[in-house]
Each structure stands twice: as C-alpha cells, then as structure tokens.
Amino acid sequence: MLKKVIFILDDEKSIYDIENLVDELALYGITVSIIGKPLRYQNTDETLSNQEIVNKCTRTEIIDTLYITDNPVYHNQLKLKGLPVIVYLHEGNRDKTFSYAEYAIEDIREIEYESLKLGYLRLTGQPWTILETDRCTIRESTVDDVDSFYEIYSEPSITKYMENLYVDRDEEVEYIKDYIKKVYSFYGYGMWTVLEKSSQTVIGRAGISWREGYDIPELGFVIAVPFQGQGYAYEVCQAIIKYGREELGFNSFQVLVMEGNEISMALCRKLGFEQYEKVEIDGTWYDRMIFHQSTKID
C-alpha cells in the first residue's frame, strides 16, 4: 500500500507547483517528503544532498514508497535498486534522456492521488482493482491466479465452448506475465480476474479485449461451474459494459458465442446484445452479437 511519496527534484521552482498535490495526498494519509525547500514540507534530511539521499534509498522501501524525480541519473539509480520511480518532466529537463522511464508526469499541477496510486501499483507489480459489484471484485490477473484458472477450466463444460489454457503450467504463467507487461501496461484494460467479494475466491475471468480483424472491442467472460446459475456472469458483464462506456469511452461491444452455447447466448441477449452475423474462425462457427451505443443499461 502506498504510504509515502518522496520528491527528489533538482529544479527548486518545481517544488512550488506541487502544493495542491501535497494537500490532496495528505487527505489519503500519504506522507510527502521533498528534498530541498520550502520548509513547510517534511524533508528527509536537510543536511544531505540529493545524490546522498538516492544513495541511502533501499529496496525495503518498495513496500510503501513512490519516488518522483526530475534527474535522469537519480531515476536510473533508483530503478536499478528495484524501487518504483516516476519521472517529472519540465522545461528545465526536456533535453535530458530518461531511457528506462516507464511513467512520466508532464504537468504535476494536474496530477491526482489516483494516478500516483495506479502508477505505484504498476511499478511494484501489484494488480489494479478495476471495479466492484455488489458481490464481486474485478481486478487484473496475477500469476497467483493461475492455479485457480486451471481448476475452473478443468470442467469439460467450460472448455467445450472456449479455448483451453496451456497444457504446461509454466507456459501459462509466462503468458500471464507477458499479458501484464504488454496488455495491461499498454491498454490499461484486458481480461481480468473475477473474485467473490466476501471470500476473495477466484470465480472466473471477464473483461474487454480486441480481436484481430474487428474494429470494436469484445466482451469475454467465464464463470466457474459452482458459481453458475446465480447471476454472477450477468452482474459482472453488466458492470464491465458500463465501465467500458463510461471510463474507456467505448460506444459498442461485440461477443462471439460458439454455436450451441445457448446459455451464453441467452445471457448476451439479456445484457442487450443483438444478433449481427455468423462468422467462421479456424473451422468453428460463432454467432457474432453487438451491443450498440443506444442500448440502455441499468
């Protein structure tokens, strides 16, 4: 959990641009340390230089501290220590090279707590919680979910209508790692893990992705057999569609339902999807259904 933000800034003028951010972070119980002036802020150590401060930083602080710096040398040194660090770009350092930077802030006066929290989670390898419904939590998948996925997909009724996982568990783990790095980090969305809220049990997967050859995003979902018939799929998919429209700006969605999968077909109709066409993919026929912008959702 993010508890502290440390600014290590060479440009003292920038310190005055973060006053509103400091006040907002305080509302969330986040301690802010700024190396330099003014004295209204909690400083780490007034007697040490910025470089000495960086030298003192250790990986043990990764559990609760985010660093923000405008110096490429400090950034690289912190990153090499495995610490979460974000670059602050301003007029005084735009000619500098931040070769290994994953995240950067360009107008620190516009940055909010939520953005820093999400950046911290991404840099420390922790999943984002996307949304919650009455009974479920939907978050990014992790390698710790893999065993639960294999349990879900072990049911023949699941793999009858969808692609199975890798036979080799190690391959599936590598796939999830790659997915986190290349899909979540690039798009900010994808297929997520669904947990039953009260027990935090993994009960399925659902989310939004893109299928090659199509120009609208696709809704995907699977709910473990013991949790089927209880309204979980409808609850989760309805929330994801709303999230996709309100937070991601998508106007329409598609689903591809394999022929014969009448349960999923009925669910999609209930969600507001309408039959559009039949398509063949790798020798298998699917009903392509579309959810339009004008469709009302609760």
Give an overview in words.
This protein has helices spanning 19-27, 50-56, 72-80, 113-123, 146-153, 156-159, 169-187, 232-246, 262-271; strands at 4-8, 31-35, 65-69, 85-88, 104-105, 129-132, 136-140, 191-196, 201-209, 218-223, 253-258, 274-281, 284-291. The chain has a five-stranded parallel β-sheet with strand order 2-1-3-4-5, with helices on both faces. Helix 8 packs across helix 9. The radius of gyration is 23 Å and the shape is elongated. Residues 37-45 have low confidence and may be disordered. The chain is built from nine helices and 13 strands. With 298 residues, it is an alpha/beta fold.
Task: Produce a short descriptive summary.
This protein has 298 residues and is an alpha/beta fold. The chain has helices at residues 19-27, 50-56, 72-80, 113-123, 146-153, 156-159, 169-187, 232-246, 262-271; strands at 4-8, 31-35, 65-69, 85-88, 104-105, 129-132, 136-140, 191-196, 201-209, 218-223, 253-258, 274-281, 284-291.
Supply the key terms:
298 residues, alpha/beta, five-stranded parallel β-sheet, 9 helices, 13 strands, 24% strand, elongated
Helix-strand topology string: EHEHEHEEHEEHHHEEEHEHEE
Rounded to the nearest angstrom, the distance between the terminal CA atoms is: 33 Å
List low-confidence stretches.
Answer: 37-45
User: What would you call the shape?
Assistant: elongated
Question: How many strands, which pairing sense, and closed or not: the largest β-sheet?
Answer: 5 strands, parallel
Please tally the helical runs, counting DSSP H or I stretches of 4 or more residues: 9
Number of strands: 13
Percentage of residues in strands: 15-25%
Radius of gyration: 23 Å
Estimated structural class: alpha/beta
Give the integer mean of the pLDDT values: 90
Strand order of the largest sheet: 2-1-3-4-5
What is the helix content? 25-40%
